[in-house]
Amino acid sequence: MTVSWPEARARFPVLEQHAYLNAGTFGPLARSTTEAISRLRAWEAEHGRGGRVYFEEMLATRQRVRALLAGQIRVPASNVALTESTTQGVHVVVTGLGIGPGDDVVTTDAEHFGLTGPLLAAGARLQIAKVRDARADDVFDLIRAQITPTTRLIATSAVSWIDGTIFPWRELQEASGLPVLVDGAQSVGALDVDAAAADFYTVSAQKWLCGPDATGALYVREPDALPPRLISYPSAEAYDIGAGTWEPKAGAARFDPVFTPASSLTGLEAALTDLPDGRFERARELTERCRALLADAGHEVVTEAGQATLVTFRTRGDAPAASAALYERGVVIRDLPVGGLLRASVGWWNDEGDLERLVEALEVLD
Predict the structure, then answer these.
(1) Spatial distance between the Cα atoms of 192 and 280, rounded to a whole number of angstroms
(2) Nearest-angstrom CA–CA distance, 105 and 88
(3) Which of 213, 142, 222, 242 lies closest to 179, judged by CA?
(4) Torsion angle of alpha carbons 185, 186, 190, 192, nearest 10°?
(5) pTM as predicted
(6) DSSP string spanning 6-70?
(7) Which among 91, 114, 118 has a CA at the least distance from the CA of 186?
(8) What is the pLDDT of residue 205?
(9) How far is the first Cα of the chain from the last one, in angstroms, to the nearest whole number?
(10) Shortest CA distance to 322 belongs to which of 301, 298, 314?
(11) 3-class SS at 201?
(12) For residue 238, what are the β-bridge partners?
C-alpha cells in the first residue's frame, strides 16, 4: 500500500502526544486496531459470545490471521501455529523435541529469558556463547565455537533484544547441520524477514507488528517431524474421549496451544492489513539517523551501524530513573536491566521529530 509517511503515522494516536520509541516492548496501537476490537466487544456484549455465525467467523478469522502472519515471514500458512508469545512458541518446540536433562543446547548470553527460560526449565545443558559485548562480525565464530558433537539444538535470536545486533542463524545452520530455533521477537515487523529456511521461528505480534497483547506465531518447517505435546482444543482435527484417541490437525495448526480471543484476532487482522510499502527501508533510515543524533550529542551508542531497528546507548546516570524522566517529557523508551543501558525502538511510524525530542529530552536530563 502506497501512502505518505505523515499519513501512515497518523494511524497511531499515541504519536499525537508522545515520541513513542518502544516497539521492542509493545508497538503503538493503530486507531483501526482498537476500533476493530471495540466493535467486536460491543457486538459480543449485545449478542453474546455464542451461536454458529459467531464461531464460524472466529474460526475464519483465525485462518486469515494465520495467512497474514505467514506473509510477514514469507512462509506457507500451513506451517504457522498461532501462539500468545515467543515464549509459548519456544515451549512448543522444546517439549516437542523432548529436550531434557543432559541435552546440550547452544545459545548466547544475549538472549531474552523468553527463549532461555523454557530451556532451563526443561533441564537442558546450555553451552553459552559470550556475545553480549562482542562485535557483530565476531558473533558467528563465538557461537560456532560452542557447538560439539553432542549438541542437539541451536537456540538464538534473529535480533538481539539488548542492542539490535543481527545474529547469523542461517550461517550457523548451514555450517553445523543442526536444527535452529530462532527467537524472532525483535525482527518480525521491523525487518524484511524470510524465515523459510529456519527449523523453528517465533513471532511476537504485539511488538513490531503493532498487534494486541498476547498474540504471536510459531513457524515450523517440518510439522510432521515435531510431535505435538503442548496442545489445546484448536490442535485437534478429531478426538474420541471415550476411546482415548485424537487426531492432530494437518500442518502446524496442530501446535496451536491456545484459543486466541476473537477480539484479539480481529485486532491483529486490522494491524496486519494495508501496511505501507517501503516500511522496512524507512525504519532502517530512521534508525541510522537516531544513532547519528545520539552520537553527535555525545552519547555512547552501543548499537553498531547496519544492524536492526533498536538503538541502545549508555546513560550517564541511573537508567530506570532516566527512562521514567523521559516518559514524563513525552518520550517513551526502555531501560534495560544490564549495564545502565537505554533502548530506543525505531519504527516506520516514527519521524525525525521523535528522534529530536529524544535527544533534546536527554539534554535536559544531563
Answers:
(1) 6
(2) 18
(3) 222
(4) -70
(5) 0.97
(6) HHHHTT-GGGGT-EE--TTT-PPPPHHHHHHHHHHHHHHHHH-S-SHHHHHHHHHHHHHHHHHHH
(7) 114
(8) 98
(9) 42
(10) 314
(11) strand
(12) 247
Residue 314: left (phi > 0), alpha (psi -120 to 50), or beta? beta
Neighbours of 113 (CB within 10 A): 10
Phi, psi of 181 (to 5 degrees): -100, 120
Residues forming beta bridges with residue 220, ordered by sequence position: 200
Cell numbers found for residue 317:
546516570
347's CB contacts (< 8 A; 6+ apart) are 23, 27, 28, 190, 208, 283, 286, 309
**Rounded Cα distance, 189 and 33, in Å:** 16
Map out the domains of the chain with their CATH numbers: 5-29+278-365 (3.90.1150.10), 49-271 (3.40.640.10)
Taking only the tens of pLDDT, the chain with its 366 residues reads 677 999 999 999 999 999 999 999 999 999 999 999 999 999 999 999 999 999 999 999 999 999 999 999 999 999 999 999 999 999 999 999 999 999 999 999 999 999 999 999 999 999 999 999 999 999 999 999 999 999 999 999 999 999 999 999 999 999 999 999 999 999 999 999 999 999 999 999 999 999 999 999 999 999 999 999 999 999 999 999 999 999 999 999 999 999 999 999 999 999 999 999 999 999 999 999 999 999 999 999 999 999 999 999 998 889 999 999 999 999 999 999 988 999 999 999 999 999 999 999 999 887
Angle between helices 52-73 and 262-271 (to 10 degrees): 40
Outline where the chain has alpha helix (H): 5-9, 31-47, 52-73, 86-97, 113-122, 139-144, 169-176, 262-271, 279-296, 319-328, 352-365
Three cell numbers written together for 212: 494486541
**Residue 42: Cβ within 10 Å count:** 10
Q: What cell numbers appear for 337 in the block? A: 536491566
Instruction: Write down the pLDDT at residue 176.
Output: 97
DSSP tag of 196: T
User: Which cell is 230 given?
Assistant: 503442548
What pLDDT is stored for residue 365 in this prediction?
A: 82
Q: Interior CA angle at 359 toward 354 and 365, to 5°?
A: 125
- Grid cell, residue 326, equals 523521559
- Cell numbers at residue 289, please? 539517523
User: In terms of Cα–Cα distance, which of 338, 297, 298 is closest to 320?
Assistant: 338
